Amino acid sequence: MLNEEIIIAGFGGQGVLSMGQTLGYASMVEGKNVSWMPSYGPEMRGGTANCITIVSDSTISSPIVSRYDTGILLNQPSMEKFESRIKKGGIIVYESTNILHASERKDIGIYAIPAAAAANKLNNVKVANMILLGAFLEKKPIVSLDSVIAALKKVLPERYHNLLPMNRQALEVGAELMRKAS
Amino acid sequence: MEQNEDIRLMKGNEAMAEAAIQAGMDAYFGYPITPQSEVLEYLTREMPSRNFLALQAESEVASINMVYGAAGAGARVMTSSSSPGWSLMQEGVSYIASAQLPCLLVNVNRGGPGLGTIQPSQGDYFQATKGGGHGDYRLIVLAPNSVQEMADFVFLGFELADKYRNPVLMLSDGAIGQMMERVIFRNREIKKIAKPWATTGKTKDRERNIITSLFIQPEKMEKVNLELMKKYEEIEKNEKRYEEIFTDDADYIIVAYGLSARISHKVVLLAREKGIKVGLLRPITLWPYPSEVLNKLADKAKGMFVVELNAGQMIEDVRLAVNGKVRVEHYGRMGGIIPSPEEVEEHFEKFIKTL
After folding, report:
1. Whose C-alpha in B7, B90, B178, B291 is 20 to 30 A from the C-alpha of A95?
2. Region of residue B183 (phi > 0: left; psi between -120 and 50: alpha; otherwise: beta)
3. Is this complex scored with an ipTM above 0.90?
4. The CATH number of the domain where B215 resides is what?
């Protein structure tokens, strides 16, 4: 039974909240239950912006949890704040261009994904978040890439639909980077 | 997916705004305040293409008095705010209750007292249920615990307001307002009833309608008071709503509403994994309060644990309801801090060890 509790965290502007929303929308497209809880307000102006995204086959009780199956971490403060809160057997997928000191835990899977560098190669730094999402979904395929694209179609205004192929490519690059990192 | 279903991923605040439009709201008056500013943003974005009025007033005081006026003219009308802004509205709310005008009011509760914090809180329970303004009056108070209920209770709220000619308050919080979940909009029939009392312009075939909250002669005032009390009695008889989760075999009952009920649901699951038989009673109407079901549950329960994002407010209603049958204790965090299910579970286990 699927019940995936995910923390996505980084600086504001890295696409942290939109990554969670996209994953949430894709899960909904597949008929799963989803909750997306942002941190908002003063916290967003400090070290980390984050959102808790929960995807489940059953009813989601608390949208707020203190321990997570997965951490998708985009900056050093987030790594320091959340590495200890990943459940035993869980995973951390992190942006390794920004994060120089990763968790040293042995009881979780830790995957370095140089998403910012890979996004630069695609000439669009903004898709680094989609690269990380692609990497995560390669490791834990809780939704299909097709559903993510369907979700992006819904959340992006039509004038940005020309960017959908670029996002698809970013998801696939992320999946490839995860295969290399595993 | 059924054909008449429209499924979206939305914030609670947005779902509430969309529901208001779908429920045939004629007018919204409000003033922005975090964490519910999305309501006015959503409505003003939708207004050009859909048939309603959304207006940003110059203040909360102005908003509530615009609601008063529009409700008096028979409009389906709404406002929303958050704690400090909701406090500013209390004079108007008391007038509207006295004049017996239907409207939907929303408080997306944030941490206080004072200007407080913009993070979620349930510190406004007393104010919502015991009368935030002056005089003997009651609001029907609905407490959503999901984005779906933020939408559903708009429809319900408008209907109850019309039915009883009474203001209805939806008491939400910053987390339910800001979080996104799946929400289903069903193609509903809009229920609106005739409002022959409304001040829509006198015609020759009837007496003029007067809407006022001023009854200067004590005899007239008391007559209005008694009329209100009779109405509140009727509401208490008909409109108590609650949800029970795993209460059938429960040795212990957690009582919580809104976001706290979501957290407590998980607490129940965590404790049940350890073999502790605990259930959750979630009041959906905070007034009228579902006292009878709590009193009944107290016959079997060894103790009750009230979880709130405040210093202990609803616990007073739980204690009144069980009337000394079982011990009732409280756990809460304040200031916009949200406890994790594990944290609450730890305190719950400490409590049951003392029984």
Report:
1. B178
2. beta
3. yes
4. 3.40.50.970
Cβ neighbours of residue B238 closer than 8 Å, sequence gap 6 or more: none
Dihedral-angle region of residue B190 (phi above 0 means left; psi in -120 to 50 means alpha; beta otherwise): beta
Asked whether A128 and A116 are in contact (CB, 8 A), the reply is yes
Q: Which one, of B120, B184, B272, lies nearest residue A63 by Cα? A: B120
CB under 8 A, 24+ apart: contacts of A150-155: A150/A26, A150/A29, A151/A22, A151/A23, A151/A24, A151/A25, A151/A26, A151/A28, A151/A29, A152/A22, A154/A25, A154/A29, A155/A18, A155/A21, A155/A22, A155/A25
Minimal Cα–Cα distance from A114 to chain B, Å? 29
Percent of chain A residues topping a pLDDT of 90 = 87
Cβ within 8 Å, pair A61-B182? no
**Do A138 and A180 form a contact (C-beta atoms < 8 A)?**
no
When CB atoms are compared, the residue of B117, B118, B263 closest to A62 is: B263
* A36–chain B Cβ distance below 8 A for any pair: yes
B199: domain range?
5-238
Same domain, yes or no: B184 and B284:
no
The answer to whether A62 contacts chain B (CB < 8 Å) is: yes
Q: Would you give the DSSP letter of residue B120?
A: B
Query: Same structural domain for residues B227 and B272?
Result: no
pTM above 0.90, yes or no: yes
Q: Dig out the tokens for B13 from the structure.
A: 């605040």
Residues pairing with A36 in the sheet: A53, B180
Q: Search chain B and give the residue with CA nearest A64.
A: B340
Minimal-distance CA residue of chain A relative to B263: A62
Beta-carbon pairs below 8 A across chains A and B: 68
* CATH (domain of B291): 3.40.50.920
The reply to whether A33 touches chain B by the CB within 8 Å rule is yes
Q: Are B89 and B60 in contact (CB under 8 A)?
A: yes
Question: Do B34 and A35 lie within an 8 Å CB cutoff?
Answer: no
Residue A45: other Cβ atoms inside 10 A: 8
Number of H helices, E strands in chain B: 13, 14
Chain B residues within 8 A of A67 when measuring between CB atoms: 342
| pLDDT one-digit tens code per residue, B241-289 | 999 999 999 999 999 999 999 999 999 999 999 999 999 999 999 999 9
Write down the pLDDT at residue B1.
Answer: 44
- A17, A39, A50, B13, B232 from A44: Cα distances, Å: 11, 7, 8, 19, 44
CATH number assigned to the domain covering A3-181: 3.40.920.10
Residue B274, SS3 per DSSP: coil
User: Which residues 6+ apart lie within 8 Å of B225 measured at CB?
Assistant: B136
What is the Cα–Cα distance from A159 to A152, expressed in whole angstroms? 12
